[in-house]
Amino acid sequence: MQLQQQVILITGASSGFGKISAQMLAERGHIVYGTSRKQTESSGKVTMLVVDVTDPSSIEQAVNQIYSKHGRIDVLINNAGMGIGGALELATKEEVALQMDTNFFGVVNMCKAVLPFMRKAQKGKIINLSSIAGIMAVPYQGFYSASKFAIEGYSEALALELHPFHIKVCLVEPGDFKTGFTASRNISTATLNDSDYGERFAKALALIEKAENQGSNPILLGKAICKIVEKEKPSFRTLVGPLEQILFARVKNYLPNKVIQFILRSFYDIK
């Protein structure tokens, strides 16, 4: 069976999941456009565009450029994101806004720009990158978790609303992977220097980073993305990552909350 070539737009494609997924999709014969906030050289068969997902005008310009050339956008992959580590209590208004504007409202902005073209075509696919942190909250990454929980709820509602237009919505929920995300995390100095939170945060952060550095190969996620793109009727949710994390995420809803809290406190050394 011959592969059907699709026009794909993927955000945050200059590094990590986005870069690997974009390259893998392009190698499989798809027409792939990636975005980054800064000018990035096109790599291989991936055409890079400068897009700030928090700026609707830059999104509109990129989407119109693709549509003008190809007359369609078949798949939108919302991958762009960032993380802020620190205590919820000490997070500044600016930090919270940056986290939510990038991770959640960036997804909303991208969907708003692409959906009119997909509705006109009466087909399309939107793949939103959530996280295992969007299934169970991670301490000292609370607003990151909140942004991913928001994506989960948004995607559930969006899938229902777009069903009449034959547009599929899918969620990808990665666990820990070895990517540049660990090194690029914004760390709250206010939390590190706080007499109550500082030491606790440092311990939890070390455990978080250890799990990420020992995480799965990001090629595994790239393969999952390719499968969702090319499958006619993909699953709404795809969990991918270390086996123990996937299993815990799947049984979470069947466990008493006090058991879940105990397991998470033990893992993050919260006493």
Concise summary:
With 271 residues, this protein is α/β, with parallel strands linked by helices. It has helices at 16-27, 56-70, 93-121, 142-162, 181-184, 189-192, 198-213, 218-230, 243-251, 257-267, and strands at residues 7-10, 31-36, 46-50, 75-78, 84-85, 124-129, 167-174, 186-187, 237-240.
Shape annotation:
globular
The structural class is alpha/beta
Could you say what the CATH topology is called?
Answer: Rossmann fold
Query: Could you tell me the radius of gyration in angstroms?
Result: 19 Å
Strand order of the largest sheet: 3-2-1-4-6-7-9
Describe this protein with a few key phrases:
single chain, 271 residues, alpha/beta, Rossmann fold, two-stranded parallel ribbon, 10 helices, 9 strands
